[in-house]
Every structure is written in C-alpha cells, then in structure tokens.
Amino acid sequence: MRILEVKDYETLSEEAAKIIAAQITLKPNCVLGLATGTSPIGTYDKLVEWCAEGKLDFSEVTTVNLDEYKGLDHEHNQSYWYFMHKYLFDRVNIRKDAVHVPDGFNPNEEEACKAYDEVIKSVGGIDLQLLGIGPDGHIGFNEPDDCFHLNTHCVDLTESTITANSRLFNSIDEVPTKAYTMGIGTIMSAKRILLIANGENKKEILKQAIYGKVTPSIPASILQMHADVTIITDQKISD
Ligand code: GLP
What we know:
By secondary structure, the chain is an alpha/beta fold. Helices cover 31% and strands 17% of the residues. It has helices spanning 9-26, 41-52, 80-87, 109-122, 159-165, 184-189, 203-211; strands at residues 2-5, 31-34, 62-65, 67-69, 99-100, 128-131, 153-156, 178-181, 192-197, 229-233. The strands form 2 sheets. A 7-stranded parallel sheet has the order 1-10-9-6-2-3-5, with helices on both faces. Strands 4-8-7 form a 3-stranded antiparallel sheet, with helices on one face. Strand 2, helix 2 (41-52) and strand 3 (62-65) form a beta-alpha-beta unit. It is globular and about 45 Å long. The chain starts with a strand and ends in a 6-residue tail after the last strand. The model has no long low-confidence stretch (mean pLDDT 97). The structure holds 2-amino-2-deoxy-6-O-phosphono-alpha-D-glucopyranose.
C-alpha cells in the first residue's frame, strides 16, 4: 500500500488525476471504475482541464461506476448518473455508450444487480478503481456488515450514510434508503485501486481502515489485502 500525505485538497486532486491520466496514457482503452461524492470533484476537474488542453484522450476509455441510489432516475439531480455526467462525462470526449452506472430506477433488485455484474464482466474487469471513503468506512455503498459482499447487491443505507449524504438533498426525508453497489469482490478484482480521502472528518476512519484489523465492520479495511493500492489524503495519518 502506498500512502501519499499531501498538503491540501488541490494537491490531492492533482495527484489523483495524474494517476488516472497515467492509466489512460498507458492503456488508452482501459476500464476505469469511478466514484461519486464530493471528494473526486477536484480530480474530475483536473481531468477535464487536461482533456480540454488536448493532453488526455477519453475516446477509447470505458467506465463503470461504483453505485447508484435505488429509486432515482437519471434526471434526478442527486442521482449518481446525473453527477457523473455533470462533473465528467459531459465535459470530456468519452463515448456515451462507454459509461456505465447501476440502474437505480430498476425496482427489481435481483435483476438490477445481475445486469450490472454482467456489464462489469462484459467490459473485461477494471484496470483502475477510484474510491472515496464514507464516514463509517464504506466504499461504494458497501456499508459496515458482518461479511464482505462479493458482487453487486442492494443495500440498506446506514443512518450515518443517510445523515452524511443528506447535506446534498433538500431534506433528510428525500435521501433514498437503499442503493445498488458494486461488491467488495469486484472492487478487489480491480488491477489497481486509488482511494482519496480529504478533510479532518475522514482522518480517524482512514487510520482505522489502514492500520486496524481487516473487518467487514470497516469495509475499506479489506484494501489492506490488495496488492496495488494508493491512498492519497490531505491528513497526517502516519503519526
Ligand atoms: C457516498 C458514495 C461513496 C463515497 C462517499 C463519500 O456514500 N457512495 O462512494 O465515497 O459518499 O463521499 P464524500 O466524498 O462526499 O465524502
């Protein structure tokens, strides 16, 4: 595990974007696993900037996103489909049929999860997976549990996640209580993983995930078992 402690969010975003850009340069037709949340916005801004300057080409890239709220359609401004188009897909030269997000508007949980696993399989697996981390240690929407889930599944969001994410909705009652998420098995199958965590409120959980025991009660702790993980944070976690 490589841990980069950087001075601020701007540097974190630039370093993360450099790793993604390197992946695209080395393998133009790579598969990127992408994340939502406020953490990656700066990273996406950098990628957009470099693409506009002609330094980066998304034309052969394929993406699979980690998760989506159950019950929100594409036009909902808090859906992850909407988020990804707003912050990245509509601003770079990616093919619209090369981007994939779980279908949050499919009420049939089994069908929606199976279909998404098929998508991941059909693109040939993930070269580089970008992750944020939730305040309770979740990755994607893999919430604390008593086991690690392998494949895409439907989760009941924890109170901590609903509260944390309510800042982006008009009221807490509007936050969906369920979501579809890529499983831990799929995340761990990615060839490379890049986790970004900024802000004081992520410091303790990040420390526990990296230096504590590997447990499904802190889903991000599983990353200790992956052979190629880079963590970038603007916090001092090594003292
Ligand atoms: C959501 C997403 C996660 C993300 C987390 C942290 O719950 N499902 O993938 O990592 O939020 O979000 P933020 O970056 O806004 O702190």
